[in-house]
Amino acid sequence: MPERQLILDLLITAFLAPLLSSVIVIFIGKRVMGKAAGWFATAVMAGAFGCSLYAAMLWMGIADHSPILLNIPWIPLPGTEAGWLYLGAMIDSLTIAMMTMVTGIAMLVHLYSVGYMAGDSRYERFFAFLSLFSFSMLGIVMANSVIMLFVFWELVGLTSYLLIGFWFEKRGPQLACKKAFVMNRIGDMGFLIGFGILFYKLGGVLLLPAAQGGMFDALRQVIEAEGHSITNPPLWLTAAGIGLFFGAIGKSAQFPLHTWLPDAMEGPTPVSSIVHSATMVAAGVYLTARLYPILTPGAHLFIATIGLITLVMAACMAMVMTDIKRVLAYSTLSQLGYMILGLGTGAYAFALFHLITHAFFKCCLFQCSGSVIHTAHHQQDMRYYGGLWRKMPITAACYLVCTLAIAGASLPWTNLGVSGFYSKDGIIAGAVHYGQAMILGGYSFGWIFYVGPMVVAYMTVFYMARSFTLTFLGKPRDKHLYDHAHEAPWTMVLPQVVLAVMAIITVPALLPYFDLIVATEPAQMVAGVLAPVPWLQQAVDVAGHSVGMTLTHTVLLMGLGWILMLGLGIALYLPGMKYSGKIAALPGINLLYTWAINKFYFDALYDTVVVNAFKALAIVVAAWDKYLVDGVVNLAGLLGKLLGWGVGWFDNNVVDAAVNGAATMAQNAGGTLRQTQSGRLRQYMLLLFTGATFAAVVAIYVLMM
Amino acid sequence: MITVTLHHFVLVSFGLVAAGVACMVTKRNAIGILMGVELVLNAAALNFVAFNRFHPWDPAGQAPLDGFMFAMFIIVLAAAEAAIALAIILNLYNNLASVDVDKAREMRG
Amino acid sequence: MSPWNPGFTTMLAAAPVQQVTPILFLAFAAMTVASAWAIVASPNIVRMATYLLLTLTGVAGMYFMLGAELLAAVQLIVYAGGTLILIVFGVMLTASNPGSVLKPCKWEWAAGLTVAAAMALLLTMALVYTPMTWAYDGPVPVASSIEGYGQVAAVGRALLSDYLVAFEVAGVLLLVVMIGAAYMARKRAGGQSSPEGTGLKGSGSEQ
């Protein structure tokens, strides 16, 4: 159909436009464009957003929502059934939703960067990297095969490395970007193991769409051929699922590989706002969502557990941080934990919806903090802030709105609330059902799966209120900083406002995001390759999403809970850190406080175990290289030298001696023989007759014989 | 009485040869060496003639003259050779102011 | 009968063939060999020349005894009267200090005599060990086959018939020798034909 082709073309344009702008800005940005490079990149990104928006509108208009496929054969695989590895695009509702979100946020962040990065010496390069990052993220969203997704996955990792380490003169960013990249890579190792298992089993078919002839159909055939079923899932499928999820652990900074995200705050704030809130860290969630049909119950449990641990741990750490960006970073970790937990417990739609809403409000929060940091001459410690709402009212209002969004604010006893309300509570609902189903299934610790998120929801409100209060409310604690504070330029304020508005209005009733996501939900829970699991099926009823939410509100009093925690946070921190300091000094809390402020000693643990191990290995290898390998090489050289000496000795003493000896012999012989040529006639006569006598003797003997 | 046969004449020529050789080898005077040469030639001629005399021949035919002629030519050549030798010796004497053979040592290795 | 009598030759022809008498042979042999060895022993060049004369004369006598009268005559005329005179001329022209005597030293005498002795010994042994049973011991006729002309005619005839080539070559040789000797001994441009003009050291230093 022509509309589908148009949609495909629009989205391909939106996908390639940032690449083009990045390439142009890289090559001629500094020399030709100057400051206009930022505007150029922003304009291109706006164009991409416009394309995706138009494509979304078209998509909503057409009736056929089967995935639009564009398969480009890329690498031939002789000997496999598939024959090729494919690049291309697979466009379904989820893709449309993600595209509009990513291009929109990228456009706003580009605009924000025009203000934030003004005056930086490498201004143009930042936009090139930012556009390249957007291109890579869009590649992940549009990927039609696991291999293409992986390619852009790595590209996203690379560009985030470049962006985090943008101010590479300083030691902090140098270390942080390396850490981010390496931990991503560790996650990718697991990804490749999962990928390898699938590749081995499928022989190369790695296309994503569940509908026709893709990976899931092939997997289903293989599983049935092997004789497995839902009650007896194949171990390799679980392993593949967990392996692929490991990539998400690395990319989305989940429990074991989470330490890079706080350190990544060394990068400029626009980077944090796009990469570490909205897009890159969401890529892991997106991957898990795309591969949802292959996850076995075992994989689901693993995913949910990881999400839960991350969730709780990050919230604890966020409560004690004093750096505003660190607070937001741990908040991101915690919300990502929510999303992963949602996916693990079966709340597929709500997890992805939370991804989109979180993108909006977290991006806005980072940008507000960026405005404050920018105006405070890069002072990030909240203890020096205070009372800034008078100087920066718009920023403060946006921050407040987004705090409400992340809290899941709603009018009590009604179903009306901000975007975060719907998404977060949906996840909690899913967790409740999952936990209860587990208890029913005989695992008595299942309650942890819903108690945890609920407690953390309260903690989230608390620490966000804390950060808001410390920054904007109360009395100014640093007079100099306060005097110089001013509202940010319009290029920075406008995106904040837009995002704050988006954070409010992204509710299922107003914007079609939720519907788009639901449209791509796998037909039955965990039903892509296996028959449906009964107790997971109960977790969220596809038709009745509202059921869970009502249950949550009634039981958990979330409607009141958030107001309570908000008030508590504000009240406690209004006078600054005074009372919180006293509370933190209390005996039991003191220990928790110490653990939390030291980030649960994960960094120290990794440093000792992993980094030092590698350093030791490096020393061993270097010693090996220096003493053994170089020793062998030097030995060879030495042998060569000895051989040279030997040959030289031979040449000098034997060959030369022979030659000289021959000459000397000739000379001596000559010297001896020339004495016969004495010139004396009588001697000649003597010799003559002696010779004649001998000749005569010989002749006579011969004759006589 | 002893019959004088070939052996006796040949022995005489041997004695002359020995004398000539001894003369050639030991004399320092160049003319002395020349005399040695003459002695040897004489010995050779005597030898030829002796053998000519005692060669078996047919009494009816011509007496043998080979050795005789040989000796004749020896005498001729001896004379010629003595002339040349003396010319050389005179040259030597002109160059070196002496006929001492030991002084003519320039051609040596 | 006197030799002027024409029958003298006939008488000689009819006479019995003469054997060489041992005493005569011994005398001539002794003269020859003794003179030869005297040449070797003598340090004086003039005495050497004299001894050479005696040697040549002795050899001529032995030619007579061997029936080669023409050769003996030629020996005396050419050799003793030509070559020897030439040698004496050479002695005269190269005369140096009359008191100077050129003597070799002892070991040179030893070497020379050793070689001579070795050669003599070798030849003697060859002679002794060679059977010469074929040697003709009989008398040799004094006259030639041509009546009235004797040996000279026979030799002349032989020279011009059997030995013609050798004869002619000898003649050419003598010509060449004459020219060569004359050329070699000619007076040089720098006046080097006399010993006073050589500029070399005086000739009184030899011993």
Question: What does this protein structure show overall?
Answer:
The complex is a heterotrimer of chains A (705), B (109) and C (207). Chain A is mostly helical and 705 residues long. Chain A is built from 27 helices and two strands. Chain A has a two-stranded antiparallel sheet with strand order 1-2. In chain A, a hairpin with a 7-residue loop joins strand 1 (68-76) and strand 2. In chain A, helix 1 runs antiparallel to helix 2. Chain A starts with a helix and ends with a helix. Mean pLDDT of chain A is 81; it is low at 524-551. Chain B has three helices and no strands. Chain B is 70% helix and 0% strand. Helices cover 63% and strands 0% of the residues of chain C. Chain C has helices at 7-14, 22-41, 45-65, 69-93, 106-129, 150-161, 164-184. Chain A binds chain C through residues 682, 686, 689-690, 692-693, 696-697, 700, 704, and chain C through 104, 108, 111-112, 115-116, 118-119, 122-123, 126, 129.
- Biggest interface in this structure? B-C, 80 and 94 residues
Helix content of chain A: over 70%
Distance between the termini of chain C: 59 Å
How would you sum up the global shape of chain A?
elongated
Oligomer: heterotrimer
> Strand tally of chain A, please?
2
* CA-based gyration radius of chain A: 38 Å
* Secondary-structure element order of chain A, N to C: HHEEHHHHHHHHHHHHHHHHHHHHHHHHH
Helical/strand content category of chain C? mainly alpha
Shape of chain C: extended
DSSP summary, beta strand count of chain C: 0
The strand line-up of the biggest sheet of chain A is 1-2
Low-confidence stretches of chain A: 524-551
Note the beta-strand portion of chain A: under 5%
Radius of gyration of chain C: 23 Å
Number of helices of chain A: 27
- Report the sheet with the most strands of chain A, covering strand number, pairing sense and barrel closure: 2 strands, antiparallel
Low-confidence segments of chain C, given as residue ranges, are: 191-207
Order of helices and strands of chain C: HHHHHHH
Helix amount of chain C, in percent? 55-70%
Give me the secondary-structure category of chain A.
mainly alpha
